Amino acid sequence: MPVIRSELVIDAPQQLCFDAARSIDLHMESTSRTGEKAIDGVTSGWIELGESVTWEAVHFGIKQRLTAKITEMESPRYFVDEMVSGAFKRFRHQHEFIPVGKNQTRMLDTFDYSSPLGFLGKMADRLFLEAYMTRFLLERNLYLKQAAEEQFGRMQEK
């Protein structure tokens, strides 16, 4: 059961970072490399507690669908999405936002998952899946950081 953690400091207020992370539209932009798109449930705007989204994307050359539901949320501090159906055996993805300065936020991202297929899934984790997911999540988080900082910059200019 790998657990992938990342931490970034974003030069933007907590609420803006929280909203960026739960934006379906920003999620699709940040994962354009895999063609990820929301096809059911909440398909644009901000996702809220109790809502779900079904994503379709191509990973490892295979078109896949995954449905996740927001199971916990305390705005603007954190939210959790968990897999309802998809390629993993299970996952729990926690997003935390901690103010560290007047307009700075520490974003903590914890992705805790289990692969299917028992021993074969564990081998896939060691050989490639954990590294792939680590890169995928970091790329997404760096995109969110850039988007939040750019939006905050535009707000400051007004």
TrEMBL record:
<protein>
    <submittedName>
        <fullName>Cell division protein</fullName>
    </submittedName>
</protein>
<keyword id="KW-0132">Cell division</keyword>
<dbReference type="GO" id="GO:0051301">
    <property type="term" value="P:cell division"/>
</dbReference>
<dbReference type="InterPro" id="IPR005031">
    <property type="entry name" value="COQ10_START"/>
</dbReference>
<keyword id="KW-0131">Cell cycle</keyword>
<dbReference type="InterPro" id="IPR023393">
    <property type="entry name" value="START-like_dom_sf"/>
</dbReference>
<feature type="domain" description="Coenzyme Q-binding protein COQ10 START">
    <location>
        <begin position="50"/>
        <end position="123"/>
    </location>
</feature>
<dbReference type="Pfam" id="PF03364">
    <property type="entry name" value="Polyketide_cyc"/>
</dbReference>
